[in-house]
Amino acid sequence: MAEKQPQLNGAYYGPSIPPPPPRHKYHRPGRGSGCGCCCWLLSLLCKLVLSLVVIIGLAALIFWLIFRPINKVKFHVTDVSLTEFNFTNNNNLRYNLSMDVTIRNPNKKIGVYYDRIEARAYYQDQRFSSVFLTPFYQGHKNTTVLHPVFQGQQLVLLGADETTTYNKEKTSGIYSIDIKLYLKIRFKLGKIKTNKFKPKMECDLKIPFNAADGRLAGGADSTKCKLDY
Length: 229
Prior knowledge:
Elements: H1 36-67, E1 74-87, E2 92-105, E3 110-123, E4 126-133, E5 136-138, E6 142-146, E7 149-155, H2 160-172, E8 174-189, E9 192-193, E10 200-208, E11 226-228
Antiparallel strand pairs: 1-2, 2-6, 2-7, 3-4, 3-5, 3-8, 8-9, 8-10, 10-11
Organism: Turnera subulata
Protein name: Late embryogenesis abundant protein LEA-2 subgroup domain-containing protein
Region (Disordered): 1-20
């Protein structure tokens, strides 16, 4: 006897279909999240460095605006005495030169420490003497007078053109002598002091030999000196 089939209620669609297996994601090297951490750290480092540079730059600018002199310190050479300036047969220059160097600080709030002062004397671009002067502090709107003295002898070799120039100046009685001051200075505002600066002062002078009044040749403008920071 044939086996009875189970009674079906409604439509019959056959066995259920299982869901597809999960797909594996493949990652290509050099793309996606592989450099995420490194890139983030590199970006953060760049931002930190840039911020630090900006902060240091602003601080340096503010520092300079506070401490830079509103008016530059002014130098003049006055009261010059040249009583000896002769070459011997063995090319030694014998000299006796003294002068007053007037330093004026025109600033109302800024003082100046002169920690090192070296005065040098040159003739035709050759140094023949140098002296060190006593360090000092210069207050606000103050005038200080230095008194460098150059005396002795020094070997100075002159070429044909330089010798001709010297003979002309000896005849005229006016010598072209350059004086330079090499400085180490600090500025002071209240209780705050800056680091050291190394400016140089240069004076191109026309000095009369054995002048009775101690004045330079060329008038008042010839006493001014240039200061380079």
